[in-house]
Amino acid sequence: MNLLPGLRIVFDELTQRFGAQIEHAHAPQLNELYLHTPVVLAGGLCSILYRKYQARLAGVFAEDARARDKAFFVYYLYALDSAHGFVIVRVPVPADHPELPSLTNAIPAVNWQEREVQDLFGLKLVGHPNPRRCALHDDWPEVHPLRKDFDLKTQLPPFQGERHKFRKVEGEGVFQVPVGPVHAGIIEPGHFLFSVAGEPVLYLQLRMFYVHKGTEKLFESLPIPHCVRLAESISGDSSFAHATAFCHAIERAAEVDAPPRARALRTICLELERIYNHVADIGAICTDVAFVTAHMHAMRLKEQVLRANEQVTGNRLLRGMACLGGVRFDFDAEQIQALSNVLNSLEPQFNSLVELIRSHSGTRDRLETTGVLKPEVSRDLGVVGIAGRASGFDHDLRRDFPHAFYDQVSFTVPVFTEGDVQRRMVVRREEIFQSFAIIRQTLDKLPSGPIQSRLEQVPPDRVALGYVEGWRGEIFHWVHTAPRNRLARCKIKDPSLQNWPALSEAILGNIIPDFPVVNKSFNLSYSGTDR
Amino acid sequence: MFDVLRQSLNTGVVTTTYPAASPEVSNRARGRPEIDWAQWKDARPAAAVCPTGAIAFADEGTRRTASLDLGQCVFCGLCADVDPAIRMTNECELAARGRSRLIASAHYKLQNDGTHEKLLDEPTLGGAGTTNSAMQAAGQELQARLDAVLGRSLHIREVDAGSCNGCEIEIVGLNSPVYDIERFGIHFVASPRHADMLLVTGPVTRNMELALRKTYDAMPAPRLVVAVGACGCSGGIFGRNYATCGGVDEVIPVDVYVPGCPPNPHALLHGILLAVGRIGEKR
């Protein structure tokens, strides 16, 4: 079994300690180690990986393998940032006794994910502190859509309205403010229930999954090439990142590498996606504290990036560009020149915008110390991406798990510890500067050669993890392939799912009028969460 | 304060002149796929690679019906990669007043080897729905009255009934200085009670169906509904499944359909202006 040296050390120590209890181990990739263990070992392994190796439990998901293995499998995805590898622990859950112990008390970061497993697979998470419905709303009948005996096209009775029992917050002068699912702005649907005493927020309850579209189930019904287009529609602002994470997973399953030029073009597109979203967010944060002029400039700059996207890929959101084994369209000399011109014109305009915001003390007053997410809370909740980096979490898949062309370019990862809205904005600002540098370096070193490796049929019964640092944070796609170029399972992990509970923490003690700007500073995807 | 003004003055006017001028779209943009119906020899390869079923065919005896549904198309261009009779244009003003007007179809003589040969009749676009001339006249009169009421100042409420957020990115762009929808007297409002038009993205999920109905019911009449994007028009790549109801018209009546994945701001403007009679259908 070939493993990265750091991962080899972990594996040797775990086998020494647990011996035959680890029933099977395999490593389809140097940085992807699978351990098959009985369910009783899940907690012990978790504790060691978490404490000794500072592993992050980046994902918990299940698979219905009853047809072949008479059991469900639950997978725990650990990211070992310092060893640059992943450990994926697989435990069986018997079909006739579908229960397993919950890890949420030890690791609050998996709260929602465990409940999602419970809802979608009907596996009971014993000991979960809050085992209420999460992914399926309370009016849903007793169905478990990701079980294999549940048909994708099942017609369920229409939605009857929310019957979720929210927690009561009581006391003199306490009242509740329900918001959503239809919001006042042009944003996605979700329900927020604020409990306030006077203006400060005492407690915020989130109700998501209004835009649950059966996406993971749908992945199991489509031929793999069509799934690339579906991946583009998981979260519209991360179309390219999600599609690339999916392609990456399939390429690893098929043991096919995208050629160097394709990897470079992927990097450019990922950075263009980062720039347009970050610019838009910086503007939106300004507008939420009434500095509309800065927002207008930001939207103007975003439009320039969207047009550049269209120029190089044919679509403003970079859709249609991703494909299995590489990318679909090469950049010709004219496009490279156009892209370079856009960067050269954009950078000074962005500098002016930064200067404009910096000179506006009213904006800074509103953003500093607003919506603070403390580093220790952030770590407990496993907050990733820009929000994590603004709260002291020094992590970026581009640096720690280099994919695409990121091992060929140099860049820095901005990290702050204050955890307020201001820092979440500054992380974006600094990352835009890094993105300019990454694209320039990539264009300078652009390898020649093909842009696609041949990948028509994917071998069955392979498992693989694909990953991409999207603009919002780390995106994982885990696949288990099936015969005839299909998938038995595709788990999509958008960073939003991980980060939403942090919003409830960051808003505490802030006033409701600051909620929009705090929410925008996280800018989490509802569709990526709900799928 | 003066810095703010100086920067705005230095920037100047960035607003597009659309619709007076053509959409500012790259010649590399993928818009409406164009089928050379007369030269089309085989619908199967394109239908096989189409991820949403926008290109489809049905064989009956020796007769084949082949169709292209812009309401399902995500403009990926995979069909054009495999079929020389299809090419991608950069046309984006595709909005139509009826769902069937997005569907073009033609009949062919089917060959034994599965290809098709000559066109049996001219390709057709779905009709206006009725051939009854009295009904048509009444419809036109109603439309004229509606245009008179809503055709100048228009208030829009946007509802995301299940979208991936891609359409929202472009809808937000309508408020940017580049597209500046307010120059038409059109304004996005926070409540359906203030709105004349509902701009809905989809697919409508099971969990949003009731919220969408309630939003629609809260609007004062007369009211218009514009369905946005492949998912809003037809359910798109998600279609109908245990968690989705399909397109917006499965839940509330729709006046105008705006294809795209997502439609760009020009396409959205075209659809909105079409709904209030300030612009005509293109194509």
Nutshell version of this structure?
The complex is a heterodimer of chains A (531) and B (283). Chain A has 531 residues and is α+β, with helices and mostly antiparallel strands.
Map the helices and strands.
The complex is a heterodimer of chains A (531) and B (283).
Chain A: H1 5-18, E1 24-29, E2 32-36, H2 41-52, E3 56-65, H3 66-69, E4 71-80, E5 85-94, E6 99-101, H4 111-121, E7 124-126, E8 174-179, E9 191-197, E10 201-207, H5 215-219, H6 224-232, H7 239-254, H8 260-288, H9 292-313, E11 322-323, E12 326-327, H10 333-358, H11 361-367, H12 375-380, H13 385-390, H14 397-400, H15 421-444, E13 463-469, E14 474-482, E15 486-493, H16 495-506, H17 515-522, H18 526-530
Parallel strand pairs in A: 2-5, 6-7
Antiparallel strand pairs in A: 1-2, 3-4, 4-5, 8-9, 9-10, 11-12, 13-14, 14-15
Helix pairs in contact in A: 6-7, 7-8, 8-9, 8-15, 8-17, 9-10, 10-15, 15-17
Chain B: H1 2-11, E1 33-35, H2 44-49, E2 55-60, E3 63-69, H3 78-82, E4 86-88, E5 103-110, E6 116-119, E7 124-125, H4 133-150, E8 154-160, H5 166-173, E9 186-188, E10 197-201, E11 204-205, H6 209-217, E12 224-228, H7 229-234, E13 244-246, E14 256-258, H8 265-275
Parallel strand pairs in B: 8-9, 8-10, 10-12, 12-14
Antiparallel strand pairs in B: 1-4, 2-3, 3-5, 5-6, 5-7, 11-13
Summarize this structure as a short list of keywords or feature phrases:
heterodimer, A: 531 residues, alpha+beta, Beta Polymerase, domain 2, five-stranded mixed beta sheet, three-stranded antiparallel beta sheet, globular, B: 283 residues, alpha/beta, Rossmann fold, five-stranded antiparallel beta sheet, five-stranded parallel beta sheet
